[in-house]
Each structure stands twice: as C-alpha cells, then as structure tokens.
Amino acid sequence: MDCTRIKGKIIGGSFNKVIIRQKQEENIQLGELLVSCKEKILLQVYDLIYASQLSQQNLELISGMQLEKNAEIDFFEQELRNYTLAFAKNLVQLQDNKIALCKELPIFFSDVREITKDDFLMMKNPEKALRIGKLRSGNKVIDLDIVLDGEKTFSEHILIASSTGKGKSNLTSCLLYDCIDKEYCGILILDPHDEYYGRNKLGLKNHSLKEKVHYYTPYNPPAGAYSLRIHITTLKPSHFNGVILWSDAQKEAIYSYYKKYKEKWIEALLLSKNEENENNDYHDMTLAVVRRKLMQILDLRIKDNLVFSNSIFDMDNGKTTVAEVCNQLEKSSKVIIDTSLFSSKVEILLGSLFTTEIFSRYKRYKIDGILDTKPVISIVIEEAPRVLGKEIVQLGNIFSTIAREGRKFKVGLLAITQIPSQIPREILANMNTKIILGIEMASERQAIIESSAQDLTDDNRTIASLDKGEAIISSTFLKFATPVKIPFFDDIIKQKRLDFYSNTTTSSNSDNDIIIKRQFGGVKNSMDNYDNKTKSI
Amino acid sequence: MKFAHISDVHIGSWRDSKMRDISTNVFVKTVDMCIEMQVDFILISGDLFNTSLPTIDKLKIVVEKLQEVKKKGIAVYVIAGSHDFSPSGKTMLDVLESAELFVNVVKGFVKEEKLYLSFTIDKKTGAKITGMLGKKGMLDRYYYQALSLDELEKEDGFKIFMFHTAITEFKPNEFELMDSMPLSYFPKGFNYYAGGHVHYIFQSNQKEYGLFAYTGALFPNNFRELEKYKCGGFYIYEDNAITYKPVMLYDVVSLEFDCEDKTVEEIHSIVLQDLNKNDFKNKIVTLRFCGNLLHGKASDIDFRIIFQQLYEKGAYFIMKNITKLTSKDFISVITDIGNNRNIEENIIEENIGNLSNPFFDGEEKRTTLSLLQSLSAEKLEGERSVDFDERIKKDALTVLPQRLKERI
Questions:
Q1: CA geometry: angle at A381 spanning A379 and A385, to 5°?
Q2: How far is CA B141 from the centre of its chain?
Q3: Does B201 reach chain A within 8 Å, measured CB to CB?
Q4: Which of A60, A439, B200, B217 could form a disulfide with B8 if both were Cys (CB 3.0 to 4.6 A apart)?
Q5: Domain A180-227+320-410 classified CATH 3.40.570.10?
Q6: B362 touches chain A (CB under 8 A)
Q7: In this structure, are strands B120-121 and B128-131 parallel, antiparallel, or unpaired?
Q8: Domain limits of chain A?
Q9: Is B116 an 8 Å CB contact of chain A?
Q10: Residue pairs between chains A and B whose CB atoms are closer than 8 Å
C-alpha cells in the first residue's frame, strides 16, 4: 500500500495518546481509523483539538481586531501556523497474514493515512458467519463486512445498548434477517412491539426463505402464521419465577399441588381440590391468594366448577405449542412471538415458558452428548432490565440463569436495552459481545464502558456522538472495538430483491439452478363459482 | 341437514388378512349405519384407501357399497388423502369418480400462482362443499400457501371445508412431532371443517372459523391405536351439533405386562394366570410387554404357547408388542416402531465403528443420518426426473465429509 492519501503525521504522545498533526487539506474525524504508513499500526482518533503556532494572546488579539475593528488581517502561511491535532489510540498491527495486538508505538514522525478495504485482506470470515455491518471510519463507510463467529457470539450473549431512536430495532432486524438462512442458529424473538415479522410493513417475512420464519400471534394471524395458544397444562410452577412474587408458603403450596396433580396442578388448585390440604398444611388464605394471582395473570374464570379461559392460556388447544416452538428452534428456524397485546407480566411468563423448555432440552442434549449436533439458540429480549434488572436477578429467573450458564449449553441471550446500568455488572460482563449505538446518558455509557471486552475508557465521547445507524462493537471475538455502520433494513430487503431477480434471469439455465414451477396436481380444473354458475350434484 | 363425516378408512391396511378384512367390513357397517340414519350425504376426508391402487377384492366391496348409497339417493363427497393421492394421477379415486360413485370436491383453478377453489353444491341440502387434498410429506403446504381465501370466505350459505392435514394449534401431545399446518391457512366462516389425517377424535368450535372435527381412523390402524381407542368411528352432524358414532366389529382386550426384574419363567406364569381371568371369545387381543428382564431375552418368552392358549379360548386375533422390553443380559435393538428417525438413529448407533471408514472423521452418526435424510427426498411436482436426480446428488454430496467428497 503506498501512502498516497496522507492525512497527518505523528508528532508525539504516548501509547494510548498518539498525537497526530492533521494535514491541512485533509479532515480527520472523531472515531476515524488511521494507519501508520510504515508499521501499519491501526490508530483510532478519540479527540480533536485546535492548535496554532501563535500564542493564545496573539490569537485573541487578531480575532478582536477582525471582530471589533473590521480589520482585514490574514494569517501569513496559515497552513503552517494553524492546524488540528488529533489524539488517537493504538489498536492493532495489520500484519500480512494476521491482525496482532499492538505492543509498540508507531515510528515517531511517521505519516498516517486513511484506512482502506485492502488493509484487511488477511481477514478470513468465520464459517458460521454473523454479519453486523460495514466497517466505519468516522463518518466514512468502508466496503468491508464486519463478521463475527455467529455460533460463539450467540452462545456467549449479545447486548445491544442505545438511547431511543438510535436504531436498535433496525440493527436487530438486520441481524435477524442475516441469520434466517443460517443453519447454525435458531432464534426466539419475544417481540413486544410486533415489529420484526412485518405484519404491515417490510420485515422478516420478506426473506426469500420465509419458511424458516415462524410467527405466533394472539391476534388475527396472517396466512401461514400460528395463533398463539398455550394449553394450561404446559405451565409449570418454575415458569412463574420472576413473574409472580410468591411468598414461601405460597411457593410451597403450588409446588405441592404440582407434585400431586402434575400437569393439571393449576386446574386442581383453582377448583379447590383440597385433598392436598387435608392436613391443613396450607392456610386457606394462602391458597386463596395463589388462586387469585393465577387467575389474574392467566385471565381465567370459574363457572359450574369448570375453568374457562379468556386469554391465550387455553383449556383445549395449544397442547404442543411449546414443543412446536422448541422443535422449530432446533431446526434453526427463527421464531417470533408477538407479545404486543400482553401485559408485561404475561410477556415475561411467555418468555420464561419457552426459554425454560428449550434450556432444559439443551441441558439434556449435553448429558446425552449430542449438543454439538444442535444449533445454538439465541433468545431476543427487548427492554432487558425487566428480566435482567438488579432486583429481578436477585430473585432468580431463567434469564439470569442463562446469562450465567447458558453458553455451556449453547443457549444465549440477545438483550436489548436503553438502560444497561440497570443490569447487574456481573451479567453485563458475561455478555461477551456488545453492540453500542448512540447513548446520550453518561451513566449508561459508563455501565457499558466498564463491562466491555476492550478498554473503551477513551471512547466515552465517541459513543455519545454516534449517529443513527452508527455503532461500536466490543467483543471478545474481535481484536479491537470496531466501529461499524448498520445498513438500513428496508434497503437490505430492496437490494436482496434486486439481487434475486437479476440472479434468476442470468442463471436460470445454470446446472446448479433447479427452477421448479409449482403445479397443483389433484385439483380438478373448474371455474364454476367464478363464472357465476354453480354445479349441483 | 344431516350428514356423516368419515375419514381415514385405510381400506387395505394391516398386513394380516384378518385385520385387513376388518377395516373393509367396518366401512361396510358404517355405510349401513349412515343409510339407516338417513343422512343427506356422506363426507370422506381422505385416505378411503390405504394406497392409490387398492386390490380388486377390496375395491369390489367398496364399489358395491357406494352403488348402494347412490341408489338410496345419498351423495358421497371425498377428498384424496396422503395415502390414496397419486402425484402421477393414477389413483382409484379418479376411476370411482368417473363412475359417478362419488364426487371429489377438490376443484378449482390456478391464476397468477394463486389457487382458487370452487364449491360443489349438494342438490338435496344446498350445502356448499369444498376442500383440500392431503399429500405425503406435507407437500400440500404449498397448496395452502397459494390458496386464495377471500373468495371462499365471501361465499354465503352453509359451507363445508374438507381437509386432510394436522393443524398445529389442535395437535395433541402424542402428535408433537407430526408435521402440521397453522390454522391461519384455512378460510374463515365455514359451518363445518371436516378433518382427516390425524388419527384422533377431536372437535372444537373456533372463533371466526366454525366447527372443526377430526373423526380419527374408522378402524384403528396400528397396535397403539387398537390399545388406545379399541375401535374407530365417525361423526353425524345434525342441527348444528355433532355426535360421535363408534363402529365396533370386535371387542379389543388390551393386556400390559410389567416385566421389570422378572425372569422369563415368571412372565410365563403371570401371563398364563391373566389368560385364565379374562374372556377372549371373538375378541382382538393386544399384549404389551415392557420393562427390563432379569434374565434371558425377549425371544426366550414362548409367545407360541401364549398365542395358542388365546386362540383356544376363542380369540379372533392376537398381537404382541415388545418394543419397551429390554434385557439385562442382552440389550437388543428395540425401537419405537412409530418413529422412523429413532429406528435409524438406534441402528446407526449400534453399528458405529463397524464401518471404520477414515473419511467420516468421527462424524459417522451425523453424516449417515444427514445422508439418509437427503436421499429420502421425494420428487416434487413438476420437477423433471433429470433435475430431481441432480438435486438428490447435489444434496447428498453436501453432507459428506470433505475428504470423502474429494475421494469421490
């Protein structure tokens, strides 16, 4: 690489504070990636200041004369006297065959140039790729995909943190869309805003492999979607952990009923089957409170000693819904559960139900020695502090268990939040990949910086200045905290469509392309209804 | 309006001729019951026959019965099921329809990749009937995906939708692994949805849709169904309500023996004691043995004597099941015959290492299973043989380890 596009010269500083004098006609941006020409050390700018050969007193005087006296004074050889200094930190050394952590300073007074795609030719994408976005240098987007090892990344949890309106949903949609055709992962999406399927807009349903996307919704499912129904017998007491705050006595009572009546424990409890309490082990008030809490959250009612449901918790249907979802996840499908119509508690209960079951299955697979044959499972949870908040975690629930132990069983979380500071530091530290979008609140930035895989101490200002769609990825699977540009989701879909149509026209005769024209054998040809004639037998 | 809803008759199923005859005779009895109950018409929701080309002797009986109902003025409406549908079009259902013995209601046309179904109107009652055929391997899924729902939903009158598939939302636990279709693929606003394919008895009134019903098989189709249901049956619809009518030709006695920690001699003694307690005259007897034997193996149990004694007591037919019987001396390859995948997995596990093929890189089980799966793909409709051949080869090659691929 010749150093044609020189942007500045290293003139001093220390390892984490390399000072670069900016070339006059060039423009160095905050967050920009620069390369030292000789050793190919990658530097990232984290601060910019003005500098001048003139003293501050003289500068103040000259500015005063221009402003107050309208004096026509100009700098003599301005490009030599006034300039910008950039402060950069050493990131890595770009060697011929690898990227190495940097342990030396670039040569003093060496030139730095802008980064190009060719600087990363040695990088090989992992087999199980998870594409996040394009490499970004300041505002400039480099045509280089930033790709992580998807299997490891998902199993070791991902955190997406950002303020409102900085592109969390867009990023999540892009990630999920990219994963639809990936056999290495199954993803469960608990969708409180019903935004990922794209019921009335572009969404995951628009993928060419839409049969890998399964959508469960309680309201008017579009053709091909499932109506979300959970048979009451599929609920277990453990599913309510972190959802309902039981007293010790209440907890003992429900577990006792579960032990005795197995899957019919809720019905038995609600219908006051008192055999369990024949020794008056539980106070009637205790059972009454348990009943009231269960009936409230499950929206059940009792009439003529029968339990009726007004909600998705069904007395007749949905016996295999949980198993079906788990089976689909195991087949690397992406399963969206529309929870937009539910209260927060019901939403968490549903999340707990599906998550507990898939986690139990994967634990068994590990014992059976077949875990390696299964895809990694990722569970997408929006507003993550609702299930991973400091107080909730103390009480214990399945999500905090997965945050701690999930990676051993190939089950990970993809937690999305605006307030990472609400998540205990121990759990944040367990999330080995953090995708940081713009965060305005200093306390939230601090929580992320303190728990990141790379040292982001100097990036506080950069994070605050991230614009919509701009992100920094800090991950144990990357050598340095990498700035990326997230594409706009709608653009991806439009581009894929264009690619699809151009490919099908150009390669339809190719040997590898088997185009199957759908035929509907077995349907007798008849247009009776549509000719306003009807056929009577 | 009064009609009968039958499904999954599976005429010609069962390997044994005695059992095979029962499934045919049950159909004959069912039609007789329908005539006696003076139904307006009969619906058969798929799998009337167990294959698309049934044997002549069975066909003769069915044809005679269908002629009889026709003479009585009772129309019969059918759809093809996963067993009696033929992608090549060579199915006996077409012949019977040409002979005007029944009407296949799966009619319509395709326009711009959308499938528009037409209604067949029952002359006597004015009921409007349409439906969707069932196909093996859920190949009917794309029919549903292409189905235009609006026109079907807009049609007024008493409407019946016949189908032959499992619906995800209704599946019972035992059919968890069965491929199924979401309810949302079905048109809304029908009075009756006559289901087939899933062998279980079920009815449910669905908001915005209507009354869904599965009759289950008209006669149990395997050992487990005999044990669980004892007999099959059908629904009679009358005055907006349905009633299940069981059809029983022979009683079924099911005996289960817990063999845990017992010797073969002890089992003999227990079984023979039980045989003395029960009446088996003219009954179908199912014997299930489960548990882990203390000594010996399953084949040491003298089933010949047990069967002989049962036949002497007048049993009509006897069946045994030892899939859950294991031995401490000898762990035989016993699998749940209901699940092909399990059988394959177990057999592969049993034989791992015997291949000693260095190209498998220690991935024998996974590779073999994947290979089996890719080789079991069926030819798609409209797919040319040469394309199918290419697709199979391509899919099979992708699952092989790199070293083996290079060798090939």
A1: 135
A2: 17
A3: no
A4: B217
A5: no
A6: no
A7: antiparallel
A8: 6-124, 180-227+320-410, 233-314, 505-537
A9: yes
A10: 135
The Cα A163–Cα A439 span in angstroms is 5
The chain A residues in contact with chain B (CB within 8 A) are 221-227, 229, 316-321, 323-324, 327, 373, 511-512, 514, 516-530, 534-537
Is the distance from CB of B57 to CB of B68 less than 8 angstroms? no
Task: Report the pLDDT value the prediction gives residue A516, as an integer from 0 to 100.
Answer: 41
8 Å CB contact of A324 and B176: yes
Q: Enumerate residues 247 to 306 of chain B having a beta carbon within 8 A of any beta carbon in chain A.
A: none
- By C-alpha distance, the chain B residue nearest A532 is B118
pLDDT at B298 over 70: yes
Compute the radius of gyration of chain A from its Cα atoms: 30
Q: Which of B106, B123, B185 sits opposite A524 (nearest CB)?
A: B106
**Average pLDDT, stretch A530-535?**
45
Determine whether the interchain pair B133/A522 forms a contact, defined as Cβ–Cβ distance below 8 Å. yes
For residue range B217-273, what is the model confidence (pLDDT) as tens digits? 999 999 999 999 999 999 999 988 999 999 999 999 999 999 998 888 899 889 988
Which residue on chain B is closest to A528 by alpha carbon? B118
Question: What is the secondary structure of A476-523 as a DSSP string?
Answer: TTSSS-EEEEPPPHHHHHHHHHHHHHHHHHHHTTSTT--------TT-
| DSSP code per residue over A326-384 | HHHHHTT-EEEEE-TTS-HHHHHHHHHHHHHHHHHHHHHHHHHT-GGGSPEEEEEESST
Question: What is the DSSP secondary structure assignment for residue A320, as one 8-state letter?
Answer: T
- The catalytic site residues of B sit at 83
What average pLDDT does the structure give for chain B? 88
What are the pLDDT digits (tens) for A23-56? 998 999 988 999 998 888 999 998 999 999 999 9
Confidence at B406, pLDDT banded by 50, 70, 90: low
User: A90 and A16 in contact (C-beta within 8 Å)?
Assistant: yes
Do residues B271 and B302 lie in contact, with contact meaning Cβ atoms separated by under 8 Å? Answer: no
Q: What is the DSSP letter of A232?
A: G
Does the structure show a pLDDT above 90 at A165?
no
C-alpha angle A499-A494-B141 in degrees, rounded to nearest 5 = 80
Burial A444-477 (b: 16+ CB within 10 A, else e): bbbbbbebbbbebebbbebbeebeebbbbbbbeb
DSSP state of B378: P
Out of A295-309, A484-498, B207-221, B327-341, least confident range: B327-341
Average pLDDT over all residues of chain A: 88
Q: What angle do CA A415, A418, A424 make, to 5 degrees?
A: 60
For strands A129-137 and A140-149, give the pairing.
Answer: antiparallel
pLDDT-derived band of residue B358, with 50, 70 and 90 as boundaries? low
For residue range B167-187, what is the model confidence (pLDDT) as tens digits?
A: 999 999 889 888 899 999 999
Cα-based torsion angle of the residue sequence B256, B262, B263, B269 in order, rounded to the nearest 10 degrees: -50
Contacts of A319 in chain B (CB under 8 A): 171-173
pLDDT for B349: 67
DSSP per-residue codes, B23-57: HHHHHHHHHHHHHHTT-SEEEEES-SBSSSS--HH
Structure tokens at A158: 């991902």
Radius of gyration of chain B (CA): 24
- Secondary-structure percent of chain B, ordered helix, strand, coil, rounded to 5: 35, 25, 40
B171 contacts on A by Cβ (under 8 Å): 319-320, 324
Contact A471, A484 (CB under 8 A): yes
Scanning every residue of chain B, which has its alpha carbon at the shortest distance from the alpha carbon of A324? B176
The answer to whether A285 touches B133, Cβ cutoff 8 Å, is: no
Å between B349 CA and nearest CA of chain A:
12
The domain covering B2-247 belongs, at the CATH homologous superfamily level, to Metallo-dependent phosphatases (3.60.21.10)
Residue B214 pLDDT level (bands cut at 50, 70, 90): very high
